Amino acid sequence: MDATVTVDFRGDIAVLRMNTPENRMNLLLISAVDEALDRIERSNATALVTIGTGKFYSNGMTAEDFYIKDLTASYRMLKKWNQLTTRMLIFPMPTVAAING
Predict the structure, then answer these.
(1) What domains sit in the chain, N to C, each tagged with a CATH number?
(2) Is the pTM of this model over 0.85?
(3) Which residues form the signal peptide (predicted)?
């Protein structure tokens, strides 16, 4: 798992923490969150708390990664983002965002 996301377990509660300066959603962070969710689903966790580090929970998407000159790359970014948000909405355990900032 990439250091941009960490997972800690506090009893049966998983804590997913995004660790980038502004937690802007780019392909790297989306992939890291997705991998962390895989790990959490394989665990014995019964609930999930997500949190950001520092000033921002998430400061949106990076324009550089979303508005790419290559339309195929932009579509790939949007598809990955939609897959992650859908996964979070149907995640098989209660999920809470502890929004900091």
Answers:
(1) 5-98 (3.90.226.10)
(2) yes
(3) none
